[in-house]
Protein 1
Amino acid sequence: MHILVCGGTGCHASESESLLSHLKAIVADKGLDKEIQVIATGCFGFCEKGPIVKIMPDNTFYTQVTPADAREIIEEHIIKGRKVNRLLYQDPENKEHIADSKHMGFYKKQIRIALRNCGFIDPENIDEYISRDGYEALAKCLTEMTPQQVIEEMKKSGLRGRGGGGFSTGLKWEITSKSVSDVKYVVCNADEGDPGAFMDRSILEGDPHSVIEAMAICGYCIGASIGLVYIRAEYPLAIDRLKTAIAQAREYGLLGNGILGTDFAFDIELRYGAGAFVCGEETALIHSMEGLRGEPTVKPPFPSVSGYFEKPTNVNNVETFANVPVIINKGAAWFASIGTEKSKGTKVFALAGKINNVGLIEVPMGTTLREVIYEIGGGIKDGKKFKAVQTGGPSGGCLTEKHLDSPIDYDNLIAAGSMMGSGGMIVMDEDDCMVSIAKFYLDFTVEESCGKCAPCRIGNKRLYEILDKLTKGNGTREDIDRLRNLSQVIKDTALCGLGQTSPNPVLSTIENFWDEYIEHVTDKKCRSGQCKALLQYVIEAENCVGCTACARNCPVNAISGERKGVHVIDQTTCIKCGACLEKCKFNAVFIK
Amino acid sequence: MANIKLSANKLDELREVCKSFNNEKGELINVLHKAQGIFGYLPAEVQEVIAKELNVSVAHVYGVVTFYSFFTMLPKGEHPVSICLGTACYVRGAEKVIEEFKRILNINVGETTPDGKFSLACLRCVGACGLAPVVLVGEKVFGRVAPDGVKDIIAEYAK
C-alpha cells in the first residue's frame, strides 16, 4: 500500500511537509514501514483543497489534511480499513462524500499525458519514473530509430509548442537538425513568467525525469550533446528536484557519455533566470543565458539556425517536452487521435481566480470553456455570476459568456481575440471591473517591457495612462478610440512577441465589454465598484436615524448632521474609505 | 561610486565565486546570483569587483543588475515581505493586502522599515494560486491572506 502526500508548492505552503513526517513516524511506530510506503509526490492538481493525501491502490482521496489528522488516517484507514469520512472530498452539490477520486467532477473530464506522473510517483526517485515506462522512449529512439524517424514521428503526432507559440515541434526539430554546426544546443524554457500560471513548475516538481528524457531524445534528433534548462530562480523547489533528477540520471548512465550502451552523449546543465518576463521569448532567453540583458532580437535568424553563442539551438517549453516520451511510446497515431483537427493532444491549464476548484488540469484540445469552468472547476466561487475568463496571460484576452461553448484550441482562441498562451486561465466574476483588469495587465507589461523598441516601451506606457485616466473618472469617449488606435500600432510595430501581444487585454475588453468602457467615460460609473474614484457614498434619508456613528468614524469629517437628524456626506471631502458604510447599523449608507 | 567598505574575507569569497565560474563573462548572471546570496544585495562596490574579475565594464554589470527584478541594489529587511501580484492574487484582493502592509509598517513598496526589520516588495506569481492571495515572509508562504490577517503576520515576526 502507498500513502501519497502532495509535495507541490501549494500544499508545501500548507504544512504538507510536517504532515509527511507525521505519517512516516506513525507508520514506523506501528511497525508498518515494510508494507506501507509514505511518499511525497508532485502536484495532484487539486490545489484548492490542499494538502492532499491519496491512498493507493484504492484511490482514496483525502483533502485539507493537517498533521493532526495523520494518526487517524493510519489507525482507521490503514489498519482497520475504514475510510476517514470527514476528510473525503465532499461533492458541493449533493454533499456526498466521494471516496474514489475517479468519481470526482474535477478529474472525470481530464486526460493526463503531460501530467501523467504528477501525483503518482516520488519525483526524487528515478526508479519510480522507470517503473512507469520511464526512459523506455529514449531507449527505443537510440536503439531502434534513426533521428529522422523520430522527427517524422513527432511531425505526425501534430504536437505544437505548449509555451504559447503553437509552432510544430517536429518541424522545429527538423529545421535545427538540418543546420550544419559542430555544436548544437537543446534548451528547455522553464521561465514561466505568466502571472497565474504554474503548469511548468508543477511538471518539474512532480515529474522532472520526463523533461530530462525528452531533452535527450531531442538532442539525439538534432545532433546536440548539451542541454540547458533555463529556469526561474523563484522556483527553488523545482530547481532542487531537477538537480536531484539530473544527478540520478547521470548515475544510471542515462545522461553522460555512451548512453544506454550506444555512442550517444548528452548532458544537462541549469541556467537561472532572474525575474524578467520577456525572457520567455526565445531570443531574449538565449541572451539571458549568455549573461546579458534579456533583450530580444529580430528573427530571422531563428535560434534553430543561430542561437546560444550563435550555434543552432532548439528551444522548447517544459510541457512540450513532457509530451514527447509518451508520443514515442504510444505512437504518433495515438496522440493525433486526441484533440481537434489542428490542435492535437491535451493542454495543461492552471485554473485560478474566482473559481471553486483552483488547480492544475489537463484536458483534451477541443474541450469547451464551459466544461472546464463548470464541470472541472466546479463553477464560480460564492455562487456569483460568471463574467469573463482570461486566457494567455498578459498576451491574451478576456473571453465572455458567448465564448463558453466554443472548443478550446490554438486557432479558436485566436479567432476569439485571445490566445492559448502557456495555459493560465483566470476566472472573473461580476465583482471584477474589466477596465481595471486591462489596466492591471498593462501595468504588468509596462514593468516587464525590456525597453528596446519604442512601440512597446512608450506605447504601452501611454495605454496604461489612458486606462488609468478612465478608472479615475477623467476619461472621454475619444480616449477609447485612442486606446484602439494605439493598440493597433503597437501590435503592428513592436519587435517581439511581448510587445506585439501586449495590447490584447485592452482590445479584447473593449470588444467584449464595450458597455463598461462607455459607463466609465460617459456615466462616470463602475458597475463592479472597483474603481474607487467613481464611487459615491450616500446616506439614504429614510433609513438614517441620526445616531452619529458615521460622522464620528469619518476620518476626514466629511459627514455632517444633527443628533437624531439626517446626516449628509460632503462628496468633495469624502475619501471613499468606506468607514461609514461599515459602521452604519441601519443600512442607511450605500454606494451609488 | 561606492563608499561601502566590504570586509576582506567577503571580497575573497566573491573572487572565489568568480573563479569557480572560470571568470567567464557569460556566467555573469550565475555570479550575480551567488553574490547576492553572500551579501544579501548587490551594492556598487560588489558590481565593481565582479566587473573587474570577469573583465567587463561596470556599466555592463550594472545594466544586467538593473534589468532583472530578482537583483537588488538595496539591502532588504531582516524579514523581507513579498506580496504576490499575480492575476489570481489580484482578483482575490491582493491590492488591499498591500495597502494594509503599507499602513501598518508605514513604508512604501520597495522600502525597508527604519529598524531594518521589514522590507516590502511585490512579486509576480509564486505559483501557489490555490492559496491566493499569497504573501511570502522570507521563504515562508502565507496563503489566503485577508487584510485583517496582516497584523497577525507582522506580529509573528516583530518579536
Note: The mean pLDDT of chain B is 90.
Protein 2
Amino acid sequence: MKLTLKIWRQKNAQDKGGIVEYPIDGIEPDMSFLEMLDVLNEQLINKGEEPVAFDHDCREGICGMCSLFINGEAHGPDRGVTTCQLHMRMFKDGDTIFIEPFRAKAFPVIKDLVVDRSSFDRIQHAGGFISVNTSGNTIDANTIPVNKDDADKSFDAAACIGCGACVATCKNSSAMLFVSAKVSQYALLPQGKVEATDRVLNMVHQMDLEGFGNCTNTGACEVECPKGISLENIARMNREYLAASLKG
Amino acid sequence: MAQSAQLNASILKKVAMALSGIFLITFLALHVTLNFISVISENVFNEVSHFMGYNPLIQYVMQPVLAFGVILHFVMGFVLTAQNSAARPISYARYNGAANASWSSRNMIISGLVILAFLGLHFYDFWFPELSYKYVAGEAPNATRYYEDLVHKFESPVRTGLYCISFILLGFHLWHGFASSLQSMGMHNKYSRFLSKVGYGFAVVVPAAFVIIALFHHFNN
C-alpha cells in the first residue's frame, strides 16, 4: 500500500507544532497501525531525521497506552479496538491519513503524538479505590454475596483501560465515561458502597478541576470506546452524585 | 476528606439544564394544544386565549416561572458551551463527528440559537403587543381579538417561513434534548428505550403541529 501520512509534529510542550506530510510505500494490509508507524520511524531514522514520538506498550489492546486520533476518530475508523489493534486493511491504497494527538486541555501534548494523561491518575487517586483493613482480619471477598447482574455490570465497568478515547472523541472533551466507569465498578459492589458518597463527590470534583468539558450525552464516547463502556454508567454516576449531594 | 457538593459542579449544571428542559417540554405540549384549537374553532381559541391572558395564576405565577425556566435554560446552555470550548483549546485538523454522534446532538447550540432568535420574533409579534395592550394603553379586556391578531400575523410569507424554519430546528433540538434530559437526571433503565421513542415522537409531532398551524392560517386567510 502507498499512503500519504499527515502527522502532527511538536518538539515539546512549549512548541507550537504543526502537521507534516510523509509519503510512505510498501505497507502491508495485515500490519497493525503502530507497525506502520514503526516502518515510518525506521525510514526517518535512516535519513537522520527525528522519529515520530507516539505512546504504546502492550500492543494487544490491554494497557490503554496507545492513543492517536486517526482520520478524525479516536483509535481510527474501526470499532471496539485500540490503535494497536487497528490494521492497515481498514485503509485503501492511496489514502491520506491524518494522525493527531488526543486533544484536550486536560491532556497536554508532551511531544508529537504523546499526551500527558496523568489527569486520569489524579481522578483515580481522588476516590477510585476501596479502603481495606489488611491487618490479617480481612474478609474474603468471595464470602460476600453479590447479585449476579450487579457483578456483571461492575465487571463491565472495570473493563475500562483509561485510554482517554472518550475524552478525545467527545466534542466537549468530557471525561464522564471514564469517571463513571470507575465510580460504577465500585458503586455496584458491597465493598464499594461504604465510601460511595465520598468517592463520587471527590472524583467529580477532581474531574472538574482538571478542566474536562461537560457531558452533553452525544454518545460518541460509547461508540469509540475500545472496551464498550456503556452510557448507563454515566446515568448511574449522575444518580450517585445527586444522592451524595443531598447527603453531603 | 470528602468534597461537599458544589453548586457549580458539572453534573449539577447538567441537571439544571435537564430540569429546565423538561419543564419547557411540558410548556410546549400545552402551547401546541392551545394553538391547535385555532385551527378547529375561532370562538374556542378566543375564549381559551382570553382565559390565559387574564387568569391571575397564569399571569402572575406561571408566567414568571416560565420566564425563569427559559432564562435558566439559555444561560446554562451558553455557560456549558463556553466551558466545553475551553476544554479543547486546540482543535483537530480532521474531526469526523458524524461517525459517532447525530447531527442534532452535536449542534444543540445552533438549534438553540435559532430558537432564541425565534423567541425574539415571537415576543415582538405577540407578547410585547399583549403587554402594550394591557399595561401601556390600558385597553379594556376584549375576548374576541386573539384569533384576528393570530391570522393577521401569518399573512406574511416571510414571517410564516421564518416560523416554520424555527419549528424544524426546534424538532432537531427536541430530538436530542428529550432523551438527553432523562440521561442527565440519571435515568437509564428498562423504560429508557420506550421513553426515547416517546421523545422522538414528541420531537416530530409537536414541531409538525406548529408548522401545520402556521401554514393553515397563512393559506386559509
Note: DSSP finds eight helices and no strands in chain B.
